[in-house]
Amino acid sequence: MDKARENSSPRLHLRVTPTAEWKLRSGHPWLYAESILEQNRPGEVGELAVIYDRYNNFLAIGLFDPGSPLRVRVLLVGKAQRIDSAWLRGRLLAAIERRDGLFDAQTTGYRLINGESDGWPGLVLDRYASTLVLKVYTAAWLPWLAEITPLLQEELSPEGVILRLSRNIQPLALSRFQLSDGQVLAGPALDGRVIFLETGLNFEADVLRGQKTGFFLDQRENRRRVESLAQGRRVLNAFSFSGGFSVYAARGGAAAVTDLDISAHALDSARRNFALNQSNPAVASCRHEAVQADAFDWLKEHPATEFDLIILDPPSMARRESERARAIQAYAQLLRQARTWLSSEGILVAASCSAHVSAMEFFETVRQTARKSGRRFEEIDTTGHPPDHPAAFPEANYLKSVYLRFEAGK
Predict the structure, then answer these.
(1) Is residue 42, in this structure, part of any structural domain at all?
(2) pTM above 0.70?
(3) How many Cα neighbours within 13 Å face the side chain of 90?
(4) Are 112 and 139 in the same domain?
(5) CA–CA separation, 84 vs 88, rounded Å?
(6) pLDDT tens, 224-267?
(7) Phi, psi angle pair for 282, to nearest 5°
(8) What total number of domains does the chain contain?
């Protein structure tokens, strides 16, 4: 059922460039405005656009967004299907089924829908215990929320459903659809924090106002890896946010953990996350310090101490292709600075969430910077996306991490 127009209106038809045809047939889920050659009428936000190839054969169908240069978010390619409630339900159940067996009762926070890679372009769905957080990155989904919300209630039985909106679509969402970021779509009002489990540890998620959907669920597997390396070590968690890596390091037997972040709000959350896990003897015995400072500036200072394990997980430093080269330089600078704080046999964990910096570029930047330090090192591991955050097309590949263990002496 088309959410934007009455059935009396002609279906929105598009024809696209040969290059766009090839990309769509190859499975790419985006169609940009400049790739559209013909359009039979103006389209409305959220309506279904049917894309035809040069021979007038059905090619794809997707959600139209006239206010975005990314004009169509593709729902399916190849064979025409009716996009209705039953279709949406099938897509939801398929995403849920892909995650069968990934988590047990000790993990109640994870991703259920990962946007384009799960066939829901521009939409993600995260679970935090009994609360669902639906984040929308394109206005094209806004007319469909009245149908999606009861579907989530029927299939997942949450206590609440929270809507999060990308900043760029918030004005339109409010003015045209009376929807706002942090709005409760279903269930009782919340105070903003939901407690959930991750591998037996308690964490809070600020589902109403926090970054992303309230927590960085995509770093779960890296947090577990850090836990396995932390025994007896003094740990620095730079760009710590709410201390997820730090709590894991503490459970792994770290002697001390320092959270470093520019945000007092984030550090307060980190303190609460440590408090939530005081029943664990290792967490309770770990010395925890919080330092509020810009990580780049703080790491420039002359080292006042040494750390045996340093985690560098900065925010995205390349939000567009034009920022890629500068981001690589910033990563190298950060790595050089952090290296001076690392003990002679320390471990460095470097992560990037910048989609415009490839894994190969990032890993080589880390390796080259480590070589220039003059210290011998071993590359322990490289990691990518966790299984609940699949990446089905190139632009979806954003997360990468590398682990280096340095040797004593030259």
Answers:
(1) yes
(2) yes
(3) 9
(4) yes
(5) 6
(6) 999 999 999 999 999 999 999 999 999 999 999 999 999 999 99
(7) -65, -40
(8) 3
Do residue 318 and residue 377 come from a single domain? Answer: yes
What tokens appear for 406 in the block?
Answer: 């340095």
Q: State the distance between the two ends of the chain, measured CA to CA, in whole angstroms.
A: 67
pLDDT above 90: percentage of residues in the chain: 89
Burial of 101 (0-12, 13-18, 19+ CB in 10 A): exposed
What CATH number is given to the structural domain containing 301?
3.40.50.150
Beta-bridge partners for 381:
403
Question: Helix or strand or coil: residue 344?
Answer: strand
What are the two backbone dihedrals, phi and then psi, of residue 36, each rounded to the nearest 5 degrees? -90, 120
Q: Please state, as a whole number, how many other Cβ atoms lie within 10 Å of the Cβ of residue 12.
A: 22
Is 200 domain-assigned? no
Q: Which helix (H) or strand (E) element contains residue 406?
A: strand 400-406
Q: Which residue, 35, 53, 77, sits at the end of a domain? A: 77
The 10s digit of each residue's pLDDT in 312-365 is 999 887 777 888 888 899 999 999 999 999 999 999 999 999 988 999 999 999
Are residue 146 and residue 240 in the same domain, yes or no? no
User: pLDDT at position 305, please?
Assistant: 86
As given in the structure block, the two tokens for residue 24 are: 């769509």
Is residue 260 within 8 Å of residue 282, measured between CB atoms? no
Q: Residue 163: which domain range? A: 85-194
Would you list the DSSP string of 108-130? Answer: -EEEEEEGGGGT-TTEEEEEETT
